Amino acid sequence: MNQSKKDSLTINESDKTLDKLRSFIFKMNAKPDSITRAFSKQIKVDLDAIYNLNTIIIEKLRMHCQGDNLITRITINYCNHRTYEYDVWEKFENESQKNSGCIENITIKWSFMVNMPQYEML
Questions:
Q1: What DSSP designation does 113 have?
Q2: How many CB atoms lie under 10 A from the CB of residue 72?
Q3: What pTM was computed for the model?
Q4: Which residues of 28-49 are buried (b: 16+ CB within 10 A; e: fewer)?
């Protein structure tokens, strides 16, 4: 390994200490942001629950995202093998009332860019 590459991978003691402190604070105060639950039988989730979930996620991300840096994508797979994909939340809201039927699964992805003023883009 050449010297410049070796130097770029080296972490000074001050940064190590700061990272350890951050890690400790996170372990002591963090709450899980991800919960997964598998059901052994069919369940019913109404549309209001999905809207509420989106609202909760957006509120949580709003602290770190600004403006149009957040995109919500939804994919719905119905039991009759139809699949609907929505590139933005607004399309889902407008069309969700039109589509009905047994949903096999639904995937919601929130893509976002985080504002971290302590770091610079190179």
A1: -
A2: 20
A3: 0.61
A4: eeeeeeeeeeeeeeeeeeeeee
